[in-house]
Task: inverse folding
């Protein structure tokens, strides 16, 4: 009783910190969410990927070489990054100079200038770029030496001539930001060219299908893959992309269906527009997904026959090295590449001059470092827009140089780590080179916690 | 004079036949191809990219004439799922029944199904014309964006669900319309469209017997107090 009375008294005078105690259940973010829902009657839609903290590649570290392993000379000795994808059935596999590819992002979500910049950067670095939910633009085909053509549930602008002109076909089952959901492009971005490419009325809120129109399930997928092989006379690799959920089973089914390459996109993967509840609450982290995907491929004894690309929050050369060490053949990057172009930067570059975009961020109710307003089409730095004026803020040559530099940096970091681990080829990085810093990451990646031989939840087979 | 080439799928593999159609047919000056004993083969005559008359004697599996451009393909039998999917141009006729997703996402050309079509006929249609002599299954015309569908028989549940700008004409009973689909008055232009497509298909019905179904366009934008401020 005495305590109650004291608290009441303190509160009454307004001096107790308890009167400013934030509720963990109804914190400011949640209050904002509820009030926004009450005001609009509509879920929040936004761009980019999951913002919440999840176990990720930062929770792993490499065991560099020392006495038990020889390192390679960091700046001198050869370290190959050559990567070949689609060796299983395709007559013409995709040969890349680096194991870092550019992820599928649509013309519609991105401007034609951005697609051209990505193609130029990828070509310069000897890697591939990928179309998205909106068809293939001339800009990206002309600028990309290796272009992967996505076959999505919506089939917007899907064209057999583009199938024939592509270097590989990627059948998209889902993406990490929204496994189980279809594409979304709000009316602001459906300008005349986007609308015509997608056969949609201008300005419509485009909500595309979540299932393919002409097949259902893995048995059908096998037949669909064979159709694409017949159309391309068995020349082009067929990739199958899944959003990370039941990854072990999905990857096995995709391999059984005859895919040459499996792309697994974890929950940190980005989107141009998706419900926030979907982005944050559906799908599993990239780290956990990668381990399950590798397990599935190894379980089928298909390592080296079917290649694995992992995506979803890959940002750094260390991320790439860790993904490869865990068993990926390559990575795919979307958001990192957009940030390299200037996403969330204070300025955009016009003819070599930095111009402030702060006022435009402010108009959107956001600021550099926090912006996820891709869905609005009002990107202050001209990346995720279809607006005739805003898109000029990203000049293809400037963008291409920035993305090239970014990819180059990642590749140098990757080879630095590989050499330190004594590998002449980045694909020789192995799980044995890695340990985990947290119990969660150790359990998900099935790697020992650093300094121990403990892998949570896993007992080694008895000898 | 059109050169005729004949294949027997009991003797020649599917891959060889398709490869010939893609890579050799034009060079050989062949304009007419007859294919025997398809025995339910999938992906037969898919990816055609040149004008030719292709006649298939028997039943075919999935994706016959898939992504067709220019060619005229006739199936003297039934067709499996996804017949003429993503067709760009040309003409595909199935004399028997067609399974699910016939002419799915087709962007141009014309498909005629003389018998019934199963579910999801004309799903995601993007500009092609479809004429079905018999009935169509549920969810036909789902999310159809552009093009015309003429259904001479009955339709199943949820016809024209989430339609965009495609138009559906039905002669028989409709079990139910899908979300955002509505009956509209037949104008002269509609009767002319139906007459034109019936003529192409060779079906003798009176265009006046058909009803028009199109989008109410209430799903084009999120309808909330949000005032588009998402």
Result:
């Amino acid at each position: 009783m005495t305590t109650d009375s004291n608290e009441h008294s303190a509160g009454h005078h307004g001096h107790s910190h308890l009167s400013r105690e934030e509720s963990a259940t109804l914190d400011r973010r949640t209050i904002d969410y509820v009030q926004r829902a009450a005001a609009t009657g509509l879920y929040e839609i936004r761009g980019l990927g999951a913002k919440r903290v999840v176990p990720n590649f930062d929770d792993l570290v490499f065991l560099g070489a020392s006495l038990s392993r020889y390192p390679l000379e960091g700046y001198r000795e050869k370290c190959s990054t050559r990567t070949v994808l689609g060796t299983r059935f395709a007559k013409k596999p995709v040969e890349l100079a680096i194991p870092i590819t550019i992820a599928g992002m649509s013309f519609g979500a991105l401007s034609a200038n951005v697609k051209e910049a990505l193609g130029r950067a990828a070509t310069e670095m000897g890697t591939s770029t990928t179309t998205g939910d909106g068809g293939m633009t001339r800009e990206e085909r002309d600028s990309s030496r290796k272009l992967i053509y996505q076959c999505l549930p919506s089939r917007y602008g899907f064209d057999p001539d583009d199938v024939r002109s592509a270097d590989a076909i990627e059948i998209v089952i889902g993406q990490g930001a929204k496994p189980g959901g279809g594409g979304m492009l709000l009316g602001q971005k459906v300008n005349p060219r986007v609308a015509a490419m997608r056969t949609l009325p201008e300005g419509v809120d485009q909500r595309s299908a979540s299932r393919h129109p002409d097949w259902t399930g893995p048995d059908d997928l096998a037949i669909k893959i064979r159709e694409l092989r017949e159309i391309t006379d068995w020349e082009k690799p067929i990739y199958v992309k899944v959003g990370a959920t039941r990854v072990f089973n999905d990857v096995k089914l995709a391999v059984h269906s005859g895919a040459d390459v499996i792309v697994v996109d974890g929950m940190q993967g980005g989107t141009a527009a998706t419900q926030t509840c979907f982005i944050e609450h559906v799908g599993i982290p990239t780290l956990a997904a990668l381990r399950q995907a590798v397990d599935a491929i190894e379980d089928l004894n298909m390592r080296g026959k079917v290649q694995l690309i992992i995506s979803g929050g890959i940002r750094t050369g260390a991320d790439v090295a860790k993904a490869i060490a865990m068993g990926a053949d390559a990575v795919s990057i979307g958001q990192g590449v957009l940030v390299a172009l200037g996403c969330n930067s204070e300025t955009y570059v016009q003819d070599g001059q930095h111009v402030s975009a702060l006022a435009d961020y402010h108009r959107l109710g956001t600021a550099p470092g926090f912006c996820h307003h891709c869905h609005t089409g009002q990107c202050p730095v001209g990346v995720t827009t279809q607006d005739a004026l805003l898109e000029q803020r990203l000049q293809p040559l400037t963008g291409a140089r920035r993305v090239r530099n970014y990819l180059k940096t990642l590749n140098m970091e990757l080879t630095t780590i590989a050499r330190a681990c004594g590998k002449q080829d980045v694909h020789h990085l192995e799980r044995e080179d890695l340990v985990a810093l947290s119990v969660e990451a150790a359990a998900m990646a099935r790697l020992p916690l650093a300094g121990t031989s403990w892998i949570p939840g896993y007992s080694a087979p008895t000898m | 004079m059109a050169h005729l080439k004949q294949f027997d799928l009991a003797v020649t593999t599917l891959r060889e036949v398709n490869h010939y159609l893609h890579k050799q047919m034009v060079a050989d000056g062949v304009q007419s191809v007859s294919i025997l004993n398809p025995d339910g083969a999938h992906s037969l005559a898919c990816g055609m990219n040149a004008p030719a008359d292709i006649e298939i004697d028997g039943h075919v599996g999935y994706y016959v004439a898939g992504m067709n451009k220019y060619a005229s393909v006739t199936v003297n039998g039934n067709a499996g799922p996804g017949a003429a999917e993503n067709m760009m141009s040309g003409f595909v006729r199935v004399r028997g029944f067609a399974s699910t997703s016939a002419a799915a996402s087709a962007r141009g050309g014309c498909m005629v199904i003389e018998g019934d079509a199963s579910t999801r006929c004309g799903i995601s249609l993007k500009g092609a014309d479809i004429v079905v002599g018999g009935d169509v299954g549920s969810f036909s015309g789902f999310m159809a964006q552009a093009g015309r569908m003429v259904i001479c028989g009955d339709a199943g549940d949820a016809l024209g669900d989430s339609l965009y700008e495609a138009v559906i004409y039905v002669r028989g009973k409709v079990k139910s319309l899908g979300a955002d689909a509505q009956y509209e008055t037949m104008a002269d232009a509609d009767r002319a469209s139906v007459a034109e497509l019936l003529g192409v298909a060779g079906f003798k019905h009176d265009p006046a017997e058909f009803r028009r179904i199109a989008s109410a366009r209430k799903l084009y934008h999120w309808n909330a107090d949000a005032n588009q401020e998402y």
Q: What stands out?
A: Residues 3-215 of chain B form a domain with the Pectate Lyase C-like fold (CATH 2.160.20.60).
